[in-house]
Input
Amino acid sequence: MYKVKIFFVLLGFLTLIHSETVLAQQATWIWYPGDYDIWLGNIVQNRRTERGTFFPPFWKMDSHYVLVEFSKTFELASSENISIRVEGQYNVKLDGRMLLGSPEKLVIPAGKHTLKIKVYNQAGVPAIFVLGETVHSDNSWQVTYEDKEWIDESGKASETSTGTVYLNAVSWNFNSPDTPPSQFKLSTRPMPVVSEEIQDKGILYDFGKETFGFVKFHSVKGKGKLHIYYGESAEEALTVMHSETMDHLYVDNTVAGDVTVPGSKAFRYVYVEILDRLSYDSVSMLYEYLPLEYKGGFRCNDEQINKIWDVSAYTLHLTSREFFLDGIKRDRWMWSGDAYQSYLMSYYLFFDTPLVRRTTFALRGKDPVTSHINTIMDYTFYWFMGIYDYYQYTGDQQFIGQLYPRMKSLMDFCLSRRNSEGLMQGLAGDWIFIDWADFNMSKAGEVSFEQLLFCRSLETMALCAGIMKDTKNEKVYTQLAAELKTKLFSLFWSESHNAFIHNRENGIAGTQVTPYTNMFAILFNYLDDEKTKAVKENVLLNPDALKITTPYMRFYELEALCALGEQNYVLKEIRDYWGGMLDLGATSFWEKYNPQEKYPDLLAMYGRPFGKSLCHAWGASPIYLLGKYYLGIKPAGPGYESFIAEPCLGGLQWMEGNVPTPGGKIHLYCSEKEIRIKSDSGTGTLRFKSLSKPVCKTATIIKTGDNQYEIIISGGREVTVQYKSIK
Amino acid sequence: MYKVKIFFVLLGFLTLIHSETVLAQQATWIWYPGDYDIWLGNIVQNRRTERGTFFPPFWKMDSHYVLVEFSKTFELASSENISIRVEGQYNVKLDGRMLLGSPEKLVIPAGKHTLKIKVYNQAGVPAIFVLGETVHSDNSWQVTYEDKEWIDESGKASETSTGTVYLNAVSWNFNSPDTPPSQFKLSTRPMPVVSEEIQDKGILYDFGKETFGFVKFHSVKGKGKLHIYYGESAEEALTVMHSETMDHLYVDNTVAGDVTVPGSKAFRYVYVEILDRLSYDSVSMLYEYLPLEYKGGFRCNDEQINKIWDVSAYTLHLTSREFFLDGIKRDRWMWSGDAYQSYLMSYYLFFDTPLVRRTTFALRGKDPVTSHINTIMDYTFYWFMGIYDYYQYTGDQQFIGQLYPRMKSLMDFCLSRRNSEGLMQGLAGDWIFIDWADFNMSKAGEVSFEQLLFCRSLETMALCAGIMKDTKNEKVYTQLAAELKTKLFSLFWSESHNAFIHNRENGIAGTQVTPYTNMFAILFNYLDDEKTKAVKENVLLNPDALKITTPYMRFYELEALCALGEQNYVLKEIRDYWGGMLDLGATSFWEKYNPQEKYPDLLAMYGRPFGKSLCHAWGASPIYLLGKYYLGIKPAGPGYESFIAEPCLGGLQWMEGNVPTPGGKIHLYCSEKEIRIKSDSGTGTLRFKSLSKPVCKTATIIKTGDNQYEIIISGGREVTVQYKSIK
Output
């Protein structure tokens, strides 16, 4: 296992504790779908501060259901002792009979029984943990927020089987009665200062790289305030007047003692000023992180690319917390467009599906829908698209089932906001984001990019309606998507530009061509060969085209180029762009990087000198690009039951890596002469080009075209192919 | 003020502390409309226990908005110091600039300013109290749960004036910074035991009448459990095995001390068993109540009627708490049909409009609507009708404005559930309640009563749409109501029965005639003279018609008869029915009373020997009937800006009383020879019949028909008329 070893050295901070799937028969804390995600999301997203002041989100925050009934019908061969733990006030009904008080222990006789536990919890999430020999709380329990069980005058209970909507309960990994969900905390680990520097009024501490956690002062003595200024750069920490985050910690220690700052922060540098009669021995920190297993990996002969992969992985880990956050210094919020990219990257690294589900539910919140997700129109669409991908990568239909009602109501919201042309146009309160661009970009009228994402969202709805066997709506969504696609081409494809134009105002097509619609149309496979070629030449590879300056949109730009087979070009771009950040000293990747900008101006954003986030999830896309388009591994059927491996060296001499799947992982090695591949599960197609006739001793090689070959991979056996790569 | 004196003696328990309206310039705690009602409603409704076990509602319980922005724009002549108190975590923005930390004091310079306070509170309701010389938190502040104020890359804030929905904040009477809404508790007052009786294993205490509160043991010493069984009757307390509520209180007092049971209960009798080594000196209780002013009153020459009025008032007070509850022993929940009657009674007694508003908001909860209110179809319609009445009695348009969005979405829910005929029919999960009846009543198919209430609800929507100047929907609702009314007559009026039939199944009209639709049609003024006469003879006064056995429906039955001028008959019915309960020892009025049932069987309900509630809000209707149809006072325009006084002795020799109005009260005295009336505000029409030519020295008498006269009342002057009543 070269991967684990190397990574431990390289990435230092990481651990391997993780348990994703809960066995059906293992007792675990359970709750109503979405409840915990919404509740924990409120806590997490309300931790943002700006220069010491509480800074909450500007969109609606929902709450969990405060009253939930959990139920399970089972048959016991012999009587069984069960114990019950509950977060909230509760009662227990066995076979319709309410038991005295709130029992913590129960003996259930042999036979068929229905157990119901009804829980009220206003401040936290109603959750239960039931443990018997065979009876366990798990995802097979049913939950409802309105059981509608009323008693008529004669004492007869109403029939709850009709009219009451049940869902399956959900869980995470709270598998002990003593670790209830409300007590969840990220893990911490002590980390030392790497260097320190005395300043005029204090000391600047350097932790060596971007990190996240709680600063700790050792042996503090005296009375007064510790003034702590955080910086992702030394300049930020030292500016005092402009550092984005800070703490002013009052201490009154007559006897020396350690003091830890109560709130965790993102920083590399910490500048501490002491204006009062205080002293301390030293400073360290508690690194705060979500324990995640590095299931995916990538190594190649190019050490710069390896470094870029490592820093990307670290960036993604720092932003993969209770939820996928955008940037750890400033927002600490969930943003749907940012999270969408984190999901995709994560499928090639952690494959932590509970984290994807938590973020998806928390972003969605509850009905009614009163605005776009994060108030941003495009972010609503990314939310749908994230579910499309989730299903491709995981094959998890249960999650689709839990989410489908909230998908429908969000789509109803979108459909109700179409204009008379049936197109999406910004209404009062809608934010059309698209990208932070350095050129003038109109958000007015009907923006082609929004229609494109809307179309993909409708396709996602059709897919999920099919999974849910909701054939009526499957038809409706399919039809709506097809109609919208037709309009997209008739209204926005410009024959004169040979590309999609950016927008249309008052029925008049604009003349600006931006990369967004064009590159996504390639990713969605919406273009015929001729149009694909046109977009490639006129937009993607055109040196005069408008330039993207965020890693966010570079993600899709480079992905589109990879999809067109431009891996060699893209590798060079990765070296230049992400390598450019590394050359400037980046230890995690940034929110925005324009190679034209100079230090320290490049630290500024949002009109503030240190407004830019230097650890932003969307900066980590090389993980995704290298896994999907160089190792070339992606699902062909839901959850990798079938998959494609189409390795492409893109100018590298060799590369090797793992891609995680629901059933384990796929390992691939590829040099100019040899390909080795092994998958723990599923059936894959290895696709490659070879100048020579390839040789494989353990599998059949199928020739599919000039120099093109395929091999079927299955059953956990490693397949080795000798071939000659085309550069 | 005879009223206050007499009532203090008669009703004992009551106090007069109350302040309904908050002056615009008085600082008070404010919050988002509905939030506090929903939050407090959850606490109150989850206090139900059944034989010691927690017994929560079976419908969806919502939550407050956890993140709310409060804002106010004002102009200061000179700089001002203001102080801020908040329930929750918060930040403060002055003129768009976020202030450091969470300031509790602030100096605002002279000039025009906008102050924004954004509050996060998961467990409780986000609420603020702002106090300056001129700047005060009050209902003029704006609130929103999604301010949509985002910052673009350049640092520019979005324009929140478009796309953000603001409402006016609401308040109750938390007018001091030190009485935040989360700390609200009902008042308590010590009350003694009236008598006690030694039993086999314990002592039975009698508090002399139905009451509510916390049982208190004095000088308890020793270790063990106090077993406390509550009873609305002595039988219930003594049965031990069947008392509906009980407490088992563990005590470990080495030194004697007082012990108060933590949860309040409803009871008249308390039976205490001690099986352990415990002793105590005596028992008392803390009566728990909402301080309410008895603004309305009624006295007449008939002492039985006076007693009925007093016990009704006490019944209503016991059930008028944080909210209007149904019964205080068992449910302690809000039920829309029950609350609807409490509202009406309350307009003739407490006129406590915040209590009406709290109950209305708490019953409604939040969107999305997932079932009928309390799961009961008729209860959804009563909710609408309650708003109709609220507007008539109070003239309060602001409340309509706050509620209108939730009225529309609830009506959308109803409209979406109509069958192909456009009629309401029970769907899965719908409870068709109507009444607890002792005859067989079908709930199948299309029930005429539900269509009738639906029609009235649509009329309410039309009224409120008009108030909201939502002319488009005013038209829609008016049209829908008219269409439904037409169908009601064409499908349910039976020429052969000369009455409305009860229901229709699979397109076939039933043959049963029940009182409900018929009597409500009279109350809603839907019938012409001929049909009115038919209903009166064939249903209301027909001794062979199906009998109502709940005070709940007797309310409307007797009201319909009063509306038809049958006050003499109704007074006899009141004496028989409510007098019948008094004769059986009632100290508050009951959930159900069938004069045929014998003691102690009449205590049973819901298949349980003491299931019946002996203090039920809907038992208190004589307050309403005597105020509205004997004193004869009711609003003619919204909020009593104009009113009618049409006294009717109904066989009494004299009566006297007050009816509260938003502007004070209307006092009326009426004997067979003299009428005296005085109103604090509004313009009224005194309508009366006289066999002789009436004489009034201070106002003009208008003759309107044979023996019929009117006098216009205004300006706070008392008008005295000499006349000769028609018996």
Summary: The radius of gyration of chain B is 27 Å. Residues 636-722 of chain B form a domain with the Maltose phosphorylase, domain 3 fold (CATH 2.60.420.10). DSSP finds 15 helices and 33 strands in chain B.
